[in-house]
Amino acid sequence: MDDNAIDALLERVLAPWVRALGMKPVDVTEESATLRLPFSGELRHSGGVICGQVFMAAADTAMIVAISAALGGFRPMTTVALNTSFMRAVRKGDVLVKARVLRMGRNLVFGEIELYEEEGRMAVHATSTYALLD
C-alpha cells in the first residue's frame, strides 16, 4: 500500500475524532506499519502529558494499517483486545507508532505496537487481537 492508499483508508474507516489526530504513514511493509502522530498541545490532559486515550487510538489505527497491508487491502475488522502499557510520559513532540502483525489466522490477527517519543525512547507498548469480519 502506498501513502495515498493509506491516507484514503484512514479517511474511509476512522471515526472523525481519530482522523483529527492527523496520523501519516512513514513506512509500510507487508506485515508492519509505522505512522507519525503529530504533536498538538490539545492532546495533553491537565497534567501536561499526552493522554493515554490518544496513544491507544494511535496504536489501534497503526494496527489497522499493518493488517490491511498484510491482507493486501482493507477488510472489515474489529478490535477484540488492546492491552496497553504506558512506560513513560510524553509531554511534547511527534510520536512514531510502529505496528506489526505477529500472527495472521483465518479469523483472528495478533499484533504488537510500540510508540516512540521524539528522542527515540519507547513510551508505550501494546499487544492486540483483531477479528476479521468477512
TrEMBL record:
Q: Name one GO molecular function term.
A: 1,4-dihydroxy-2-naphthoyl-CoA thioesterase activity
Under Gene3D superfamilies, the record lists: Hotdog Thioesterase
Q: Which domain of life is it from?
A: Bacteria
Q: Which Pfam families match?
A: 4HBT
Keyword annotations for this protein, in alphabetical order, are: Hydrolase
Domain named Thioesterase: which ranges?
Answer: 48-122
Q: Does the keyword Hydrolase apply?
A: yes
InterPro entries named among the record's database cross-references: HotDog_dom_sf, PAAI_dom, Thioestr_dom
UniProt key word Hydrolase: yes
> Where is it found, in Gene Ontology cellular component terms?
cytosol
The record's listing under NCBIfam families reads: unchar_dom_1
| Protein name according to UniProt | Uncharacterized domain 1-containing protein
